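Weekly modeling sync, notes
Attendees: S.R. (lead), two postdocs, one rotation student

Agenda item 3: backlog of single-chain predictions. S.R. asked that every request posted to the team notebook include the full sequence so nobody has to chase files. The rotation student volunteered to paste the first one in as an example of the format we agreed on. Action items at the bottom.

Example entry:
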Amino acid sequence: MGGIPGLDLERLADGNLPTTVKIDLPLPPVQLRGQLDRKGFTEFSGVLSAAMPVTTVTAFGQISLGRPPAFIVLMGATFPQPGLQIGLGFAVSGIGGVVGVNKAVDRDTLLACIADGTAGELLFPPDPVEAALRVIPRLATLFPTVPGRLVVGPMFRISWGGRMVDLSAAVVAELPDPVRLSVLGVLRVTVPDPAAPVIELKATFAGQYDTAEPSAFLMAALTGSRMAGIPLDGDVLLLSRGGDDPLFVLSAGGFHPAFPVPRGVPRLHRLAMDLSPTPWLQLRCEAYFAVTSNTVQFGAKLFLVAEIAECGLRGQFALDVLIHFKPHMAFTASMRGALAVEAFGETLLGIAFELVLEGPTPWHAVGRGRIKLFLFKVSFNFDLSWGGGPPPLPAGHVDLQDALVKAFAQPSAWSVLPPSGAERSPVRLAPFANRQLAEGKRVHPHGRLAARQHVLPFGVEIARFGHSVVDPPQRWDVVEPKLGADDAQGGAVTDSFAPGQYLDLTEDQQLSADDFAQYRSGVRFAPDLSGPEASAFVGAELGWETKIVQDPVPMRSHIRRMVRAHAHVSAEHVAASASIRDAQWWQAAGPALRVAERQPLAAVSSWSMTALGTPATALAGLADGDLVPDAELREALFHRPGLRVVESWEARAR
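Predicted structure, as returned to the notebook:
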């Protein structure tokens, strides 16, 4: 009996299961390759590839037999070049899909797959078995087990211009609510031809849209890109987030060294070019550019090494600029550089400097430098300030009450909210009323009414407002909300405010604090259904009556008889007779049920179940077909062949 090479059946019988099984079966015209890994007795993962003349099918998968059971499968089929032509220069080179039960998509691992390049190997890898060494360990963390979640989506690979542009991507939906959409892909651009590219750009990207937060991000890594033989590297990120911690970030290459990286933003590699034409000359350039809700940042760095036999030049130059706009426009620019002439590890001549410039109100420059010769060194430092500070905010009376009154008087400050999901309303409204609710002209009887303003935050000390100082600081809040002449129940409404525009913060606090924070901005009115107003809603218990509808066949016969008898009858008359009120649909009331004092029995033939006259010797005094009133007579007929005693309703009439 044959078997799989390298697989010991006796060990399997003893329960010594191998942790890894590899498959390599060349069965022309099909070649199977794969690997199956086991972790414990409940988790299995692996890869399987089947190469055929017309296509190559690859599948990565993982299954867990725990509680709850879960699995994830990524399957794709690739076609030989030039692919399936679909017109206008486009061709489909691969199709597939992702399916997972009790699985979700982990955001942090998705970003990590971009950083280390694993994301590109999940989609149509050229060598699936080799890619499995890096892909399989990532599946458990990239698709963690989450009960009740479903992951599903298509995979595709499209090329254009004879493979000049090649896109491999997977769009994955995570269901049910909250819905998350994730995208994972690789974009390759090779000019003029993939066989001999002058420009080769490879962008591995991933993104996700989360309806619960809500947030959306897209990150791409340029690892493996080249331009005229010069390696390119770096990361690009676009992030937009709402909710309690709103944020907007657009960054190419990272952030200023002094900028605190916001929550949810991964570490980004600098945009870099490696200019090294010869082994003895190394020149590397790095750069970054970023825009956030309150800042603009950019910078660059240049490294130079030119050495032969440990003799040569070493140097670097760097520039970092951070511009912020609130509470007032200011910037910080730092420059630093160094250049040294070295011989056999010793510095013969070197110069280094560092300069920091802040402004514009006031200007502040700090610098230090050093010059080193073979025999001595000289240092110089300076710290200069000039110009006045920012113009002080005018102090005086600020009428915050008038600004709040005008804000609440605006129609946009009021919004109508439907009943919450936990408060199912029994009120049914007409279509006209629903249109009124949609336009915000009416409020649902069980709905809510929200009033909010964006002038200032409630519940905090307002020390500045606009371009003025509030002296002394004022605190405003909604104390006793009223809707008309009555008190109203409800809760607070929050919105995003910039703390630096209202609070008394130092410059360091303004730079380190969040751009926006959540503060109370209004009130939400809700109906009080526990007081006297609750009597306006009358409850009623629903009841129903059940009727059994007669078999419709007699009804159809009734209609046919009407048509034959009255050939000129109109369709309205037929429809009226077939209506639900027609007597043919309802059974007449039958006699009331009566319970017998004793169980009625009958003597019947065992073969035909028809009522028979019983022999006088067995049942004296009974005529043919009479009911047997006493169950004791069962014994009298017990030994009579062909006769039996049954309940009277089972007997058939002769």
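Discussion: group reviewed the output briefly. The chain is about 15% helix and 45% strand.
Action items: rotation student to repeat for the remaining queue; S.R. to check formatting next week.
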